[in-house]
Amino acid sequence: MNQTAQLLKKRKDTILEKWIENQLTDESLREDLITNDDLRRQSEELLNGILTAVEKGNYTDIYSGEFEQVTDILSDISVTRARQGFTPRETTTYVLSLKQALTDVLEQELRDQPEILYKEMLQITKLLDSLSIYTFETYLRGREEVILRQTDEINEISTPVIRVWDGILALPIIGTLDSSRTQIVMENLLQEIVNTGSNIAILDISGVPAVDSLVAQHLIKTVSATRLMGAECIISGIRAEIAQTIVHLGIDLSNIKTKASLASALQLAFSMLALEVKKKNVGTQTKLIR
Amino acid sequence: MDRIPILKMGPFLLVTIQVDLYDRLALSLENDLITMVSNTGARGVLIDISAVNIVDSFMGRILGNIASMSRIMDAETVVVGMQPAVAITLVELGLTLQGVHTALNVEKGMDLLYDKTDLLTTQQQEENEEELDDYND
Lengths: 290, 137
What we know:
The complex is a heterodimer of chains A (290) and B (137). Chain A has 290 residues and is an alpha/beta fold. Chain A has helices spanning 3-10, 12-25, 36-53, 68-84, 88-109, 114-158, 179-196, 213-229, 240-249, 262-272, 282-289; strands spanning 162-165, 168-174, 200-207, 232-236, 257-258. Chain A is elongated. The model of chain A has no long low-confidence stretch (mean pLDDT 84). Chain B has 5 helices and 5 strands. The model of chain B has no long low-confidence stretch (mean pLDDT 86). The chains are: A alpha/beta (290), B alpha/beta (137).
């Protein structure tokens, strides 16, 4: 065990107190997000980890085996904090405030040996810098995971396949169609066609803000794939602007059935399936009852 | 060598592909099928590919070829049971199988064939005969 590690271990309680104190006096402390007890428990765990890790004198390589526990705790803390809504500054400050506590204690202990103090301080600073960088990285990763999950959820929610009638599926598309979303739309639609044995699928694009040649190409692809499966596809919800852009872009939709509204598409689907929807003659019935 | 069986079902030929088609098998299928069409004078060909998981441009072309060859011999071609993944792959490859009819399953494919060839199913024939009998009575 090297000297500094021994020294720090001896003064562990003081360091912890100082650290907690530093955190509590910091304005960026988020009492609304984490309780003081939790903070203390977290900090103690982390400090213990760090002190055990530096016992062998390794202050530089935080990816080595003895730091495994520390990095685990840190990534846990930063990922949770990313989800809870801490800012990056608050998360990094958490680790950096430990540096203050550690160096304070070292200064007290080694006041009469300035050369050693300088060396040890440098080591500790280096170690905590790499730990705070690590925290920041994992914080970012946590944030990215949140964003990815939300993207997935939006994709999932915005492309539902609805069974509007026996043998008729409707697929309201909301938001811009890009390649990855088209893929999801197509897969969902085709799978649903297989599951329900539907003959007709209505693609409603009234929720699509703009149609460019790429989106049109994606639509044509979806229609072709549906046809290959043995079902028919109707595109509905073509607004005036969309019709204009399609014609101006010179996109040929002539061999695809298109309708202005979902209602008229449904009507076309009924007639293709030779179904008839009739209004009940309510008037005569009530008369009869009276 | 493997061979894909071709079954005669009334005026139609039924082919169910249960293995992944490699090129030589696809070619021999094309050959056998066209010979069968000409020998039996079939009016329609139904190809079930519901068990096919992998498709390449070659197989897409073979299917297209079978359809065009059958058409000039007065037989319609219906491909049924295509898996979603296969459909997406074909579209991505730019093969939309023009001139090939498609249906969701064998049952719907058969209906489509009867529809396209203006032939009557046995059930319809019976109904017609009954009507005719009623009319004669």
